[in-house]
Amino acid sequence: MNTQKQTGHIGVTTENIFPIIKKFLYSDHEIFLRELVSNAVDATQKLKTLASVGEFKSELGDLAVRISADEQKKTLKISDRGVGMTAGEIEKYINQIAFSSANDFLDKYKKDANSMIGHFGLGFYSAFMVSKKVEIITKSWKDDAPAMKWECDGSPEYTMTETEKDDRGTEIILHIDDENKEFLEKFKIESLLKKYCRFLPVPVVFGKKTEWKDGKSVETGEDSIINDSNPAWTRKPAELTDEDYIKFYKELYPFSDDPLFWIHLNVDYPFNLTGILYFPKVKSGIDLQKNKIQLYCNQVYVTDSVEGIVPEFLTLLHGVIDSPDIPLNVSRSCLQSDGNVKKISTYITKKVADRLDEIFKNNRPQFEEKWDSLKIFIEYGIITDEKFYEKASKFVLVKDVENKCYTLDEYKSLIETNQTDKDGNLIYLYTTGKDEQYAYISEAKDKAYDVLVMDGQLDVHFVNKLEQHFEKSRFVRVDSDVIDNLIKKSDSQEVKLADEERKALVELFKSAIPPVEKTDFIVGFEHLGEKGNPVTITQNEFMRRMKEMAEMQGGMSFYGEMPTSYSLTVNLDYPLVKQVIGDKENSKELIGQMVDLALLTNGLLKGEALSKFVKRSLEMIHA
Ligand code: ADP
Ligand code: MG
After folding, report:
1. CA separation for the pair 60, 518 (Å, rounded)
2. Which structural domain, as residue segments, surrounds residue 264?
3. Distance CA 611, CA 594 (A)
4. Under 8 Å between Cβ of 227 and 199
5. What is the band of 344 on the pLDDT scale with cuts at 50, 70, 90?
6. Do residues 334 and 327 touch, judged by C-beta distance below 8 A?
7. Residues with a beta carbon under 5 angstroms from ion ligand 2
8. Which ligand is nearest to the CA of 172?
9. 431-442 tens-digit pLDDT
10. CA separation for the pair 102, 120 (Å, rounded)
């Protein structure tokens, strides 16, 4: 054996790169394990390729990547049976790393240390974030190459000597430094492996399997493999059953309900991307969580923060995206302007829309059945993504108070004849609460109008969006005006009241309204026919929406701060109203009663006012 020792300088132009590595990468130093294990996997995959083309002719044997820690010696070892390295390869790939551009990249990426990893082939050197010394013991698959040992203690000097190694492959031995002792703990290592290496394509072994014996967990002789090397997204859709997709979903999110639908992504041109996206079942807004999609690069976990890569509304989906074409180590702002990322985002949006369209067309009953859960995603997409709107407007559903579902086109045809007003505007009526607005809904039904239910969290925005796109159309909540005014079929009869008389009547009715906190009432008069309600309380559509949106955005805003304003409309045709107007002095009780009934219909009569109303009503019955 040649015992001559080679020493040299790692090809760094900056005086000492290691303190920089430690300092800049400090926050994220756990990724060293990801980098080293994925190098081991790469080396193994290379050997498999060589075997498949017939260049490597010996036994492949066990190809597992093994991780082991020695708490006494304070070492962590990652070993593989991959291609290994010759002295020449160490020289080329380890010693002459792309540090020639070190000055450049430090200038450029000072703010974003993560960008140095991978991007500049710093993967292996991330070992120095946690180690005071790193050894490589490696033997190439090439028969005649001697095994080599490389050692470096975190200064730019390394040593390289020939050594003995029986087996082909590489061992990386990290001498963990004192600040990073946690990386020697079994639990810590295991959790990192589960996070980053869970779906690597080569078995990753850490420790032994355990079993319960006599009430405690004991190690068996069997290796514990921490990964699933053939996850569902890497397989062909044709090979997978619904059960497989659901099983994989449960693997990712153990405590979740079954997903509603899934989409298997698979492209290789003009970029490479695979993955499975799931529509989770949501019972309420509370369940909604962003950042459940996991991003992988060749089965190596990278992040679960996919903002900027998938369109905003799809961050609500679950699942996995795997692409070697997403620049993983650049800043978020760089990501967003990256051409590939833009294409990927567009592609995913299109795929999701196509898939939904397909389910809608092939199995509408199923689509309708799942609509309540699906609605939030589709509406979110429609609100935030114009391209998605274009596609989704064909399958987005609206539901009316009878629980019937319609597409936008179907619904338009349904109401077109009956709900167009005298100026040619199509009026969509909706309710946000079937019970609270019951009286108003039945007024609308009496006119054979249809009423939509818009009680979802995003419906205010959804309605806004539809109005922007629809021509000559308006959405109004059933209680935003008296029904004859909501859909004006003809010019209403003009109200003729002398100024003095009007003033007196406004006073009369206003004084009958019990105080409601932070609420104003505006009294007005209409001719609504003998059969119309004597007094109706409504809330202007525009003002209400502004207030609702202000509240949704939170914080103090102009509209949020304003008192709620209601209109109190008195029907001058109603016989009892005529009577009280004729005898103002003796009508206080009757007016109070009519006003209270209107407030009650609107859910505004509460507390003391409600109690007074009940008392007065009882007295009237006894009288
Ligand atoms: P990258 O993986 O992006 O090429 P790294 O810094 O992680 O950059 O690794 C540099 C090179 O060192 C690899 O490309 C490979 O040639 C070699 N290398 C690292 N680890 C191993 C290993 N376990 N077996 C064989 N070669 C390795
Ligand atoms: Mg690497």
Report:
1. 78
2. 232-367
3. 15
4. yes
5. confident
6. yes
7. 39, 123
8. 1
9. 999 999 999 999
10. 9
What are the pLDDT digits (tens) for 494-515?
888 899 999 999 999 999 999 8
Residue 378 lies in a domain: no
Q: Name the residue of 47, 124, 298 whose CB sits within 8 Å of the most ligand 1 atoms, as the mutation to test its pocket.
A: 124
Q: Does residue 383 belong to any structural domain of this protein?
A: no
Distances (CA, A) of 185 to 13, 75, 76, 459, 607: 36, 11, 10, 50, 62
Among residues 183, 201, 225, the one where a domain terminates is 225
pTM confidence score: 0.80
Q: In this structure, how many other beta carbons lie within 10 angstroms of the beta carbon of residue 251?
A: 13
Residues with CB under 6 A from ligand 1: 35, 39-40, 42-43, 80, 82-85, 93-94, 118, 121-124, 170
Q: Which residues pair with 66 in a beta bridge?
A: 79, 205
Burial class (CB in 10 A: 0-12, 13-18, 19+), 370: middle
- Tokens representing 280 are 């989770």
| CATH code of the domain in which 138 resides | 3.30.565.10
Protein residue with its CA nearest to atom 23 in ligand 1: 40
Residue of 42, 49, 150 best suited for mutating to test ligand 1, as the one with most atoms within 8 Å of CB: 42
One-letter amino acid of 116: M
Please state, rounded to an integer, the average pLDDT across all residues of the chain: 87
In this model, does residue 42 exceed pLDDT 60?
yes
* CA 371/CA 397 separation, integer angstroms: 8
Considering only 61-65, 101-105, 589-593, which range has the smallest mean pLDDT? 101-105
